[in-house]
Design a protein that fits this description.
Structural class of chain A: alpha/beta
Shape of chain B: elongated
Helix content of chain A: 40-55%
Distance between the termini of chain A: 30 Å
Number of helices of chain B: 18
Number of helices of chain A: 11
Largest sheet of chain A: 6 strands, parallel
Oligomer: heterodimer
Radius of gyration of chain A: 18 Å
Order of helices and strands of chain B: HHHHHHHHHHHHHEEEEEHHHEHEEHEE
Number of domains of chain B: 4
Strand order of the largest sheet of chain A: 2-1-3-4-5-6
Order of helices and strands of chain A: EHEHEHEHEHEHHHHHH
Number of strands of chain B: 10
Strand content of chain B: 5-15%
CATH class of the largest domain in chain A: Alpha Beta
CATH superfamily of the largest domain in chain A: Response regulator
CATH topology of the largest domain in chain A: Rossmann fold
Strand content of chain A: 5-15%
Largest interface: A-B, 24 and 30 residues
Chain lengths: ~220, ~675
Amino acid sequence: MRIVIAEDTVLLREGLAGLLEDAGHEVVARVGDAEALLPVVAEHEPDLAVVDVRMPPEYSDEGMRAAAEIRRGHPGTAVLVLSQHVETRHALELVASGGGFGYLLKHRVLDVDDFLDAARRVSEGGSALDPAVVATLVSPRQEDALGELTPREQEVLGLMAEGRTNSAIAKRLWLTERTVETHVRSILGKLGLPISGDDHRRVLAVLTYLRASAV
Amino acid sequence: MAGRKPLYDNEPVRTALRLAAWGLALLAVALIAGGLVLDRIAAGQDVEEVGNVWLYPWLLGAVAAPAAVGALIAARRPRNAIGWVLVAGALSLGVVLAATPYAWVALEAHPGSLPGGSWAALVSSLWPVFFAWPLAIAFVFPDGRLPSRRWRPFALFAAGSMALLMFVLVVAEQLEAPFSDAPNPVPLRLPDTLGLVRPVAWLAVFASLVVGAAAVRIRYRRSAGIERLQLLWLAYAALLIPLGVVVFLALGESGDAVVGFLLGIEAAVAIAVGVAVMRYRLYEIDRLLNRTLVYAFLTAALGLVYASVSLLAGVALGRGSTWATALAMLVVAIAFGRLRSRVQAAVDWRFDRPRYEALRRVRAFVEDVREGRSEPEDIGETLAAALRDRSAELLFRLPASDAYADSLGTVVEPSADDRSVTTVTHRGQEIGLLRHAPSLLERPDLLRSVLAASSLAIEIARLRVGVRLQLAEVEESRARVVRAGYEERRRLERDLHDGAQQRLVTLGIVLRRLQRSLPREARILGPALDSAVEEIGLAIDDLRTIAAGVRPPRLDEGLAAALADLARAAPVRVDVEATGERLPAEVEAAAYFVVCEAVTNAVKHGEPSHVRVEAVVADGALRLVVADDGRGGANLATGTGLSGLTDRVEAQGGTLRIHSPRGAGTRIEAELPCGS
């Protein structure tokens, strides 16, 4: 796997690179800020970009914005964002936009195998969302509500979790799209996800499912 | 006349004029002094009708006053005829007044000792020259010119009639008293057929005096500002005449006393003219007039009261009883204070309506302030209304600083404009500035009395404005301190996350790489490294907990996100209903910490099973409610951690309410203005 790393703390950057190289990956470029990241991604078209959230010059969410740009401009490059603390705003949007994206707290790196696994999963088009983020987004009550779903609804939710659209799910289950929509609405209702015009309800439903299946 | 340099503008000419003025004045004084000496000599020879010593000061004053004032004016303002008129008047008086004792000595005391005794008697009989200079002043006061061209014939008539009278006296068959026995040394005589000329001349002089008075009156009507004050001074001196007559009638005096009185009036008029022309203390006239009127009325009224009470009491207690006198005195003493303010108000009302109205308005306002019907800060508007000056603006001098503030408590730099500025003082201390139309300076008495009447209100307003400003400063500085606190927390949180945590992660990675690169025979170290990394993980967890306590990073995502985390971490069920709206960072921070402390407090002291948190935006304020079903009884005073809440809320300009009946839960409500 060809990887670029964007991380402003030099020691940490080198440590990460070493960890990935130890695992047999090829780190093709290492940069210290988000501005330098985009050109190297364009140049190398890597399989994965590992990006720190806070980077110069503002130390706010440069990494997150760069990640969104990479996902838009270079669909072939997956992004794994590393953050010092839980932040849900952009993470949810990126996860919702499809696979090839991961968001982990930095210290997850210390569980080396899990980290490498997440990196592999993301680069293969999957998602990885830090359990702490999921815990922030999903309340225990919603998890309990999973048990109330019918087998068919469970099935639909499972397919949703694989990132499939309603029409794809309809094809797979030999249902009409309208029926799938009804199922989705029922799922969201049972999980108690607020109706208030939120694009992320579907993602939250998936997250609930993923969290429950992880436990 | 343009381009022609007036004669007076030459320095030598001016010096000469000055010397002439003072020289003539000195001459006049020397004449009267000599006359007094001669009078003593005549008195030594027991000549009748001389030697009345108490008349001397009046004689001296009647000459010295116009002489000094005239010389002063003539020396300073040689172009103003008034100075010269006064000097000439003093001189003529000096001559006439000195001639009388000269004639006495020459004709009676030591006959033949002095030459020209009968000529002196003739000069002495020219006493109506007394009227000459006041008459001239009446026409040309205060600028030394006639009121207008049309007055020229009247002035000529007055001069002519005076001259005619003098002429008639000079050629008279018989000299004036007391020298009617002395022969007239002038050989010329009027034919008997012209005997009527004498009363006609007298009539003409009296008519001239009336015309002169009319000239002053007309001038006064048309005058404004300073000229009006000048004329008032003259009128004030003239006012002494009727007053003096009343006093004389009351005392039953006559003869020399009347002469002395008339001389005194001449002196007084001369001094008044001097004050008016030199504009020295010109503005005192209003107060002087006012006081004179008040005390004249007061004296008359108290006299009346005294007379009637002693009369009535005399009837009741017996004539001449000391009790009647004592009672009358008592009544007068009691009546004095009351009567004085009444008379003052009446005089103000009748003679000075603006002052009366202004004082009434200001006093009513002060009374309103006392009764709590008005705010003392409105004194500025009241002053503007009372002084009838819309441009009037009152600035309060702030206590403990040199700055000025308006009634709203805004610090103002009094910049110069075309308004005049009067300092307001209270107990010798400057308490403010009144900026007003310059025309008010012509009524300094009005300004002074109105400001004096309002000084207490101004002082109160000033102190209140000062206290309010200081409070605002203190609140501002508290808000700054609290804001700085939030900033500091943010910085600390960043340092923990971006600094210490990163280092620990880096250390962990190093250990992990070491572990993974261990040769087979060293794998025994694996578990030790595992537990080392595990320890690092725990340290990171601790660090994250601490950082979140310092400032939850999720506050960056908004209050709702931060409060949701707070609820999740709480040991009891916490339901949050929070606005998704983004608010200013310090409002969000304040709200978060208020809720955080309130929930912590509830859990710690109230043992609730359920806490409800609300954060909604309404009417430009964030309304926070933290309600629990715990024990209640929370109190700001008992130090159960709630006083910190008050500080936080008030620093943000908000309000905090606590409702915590014992046994029925605690409800904390806070409102933070958020400007949205």
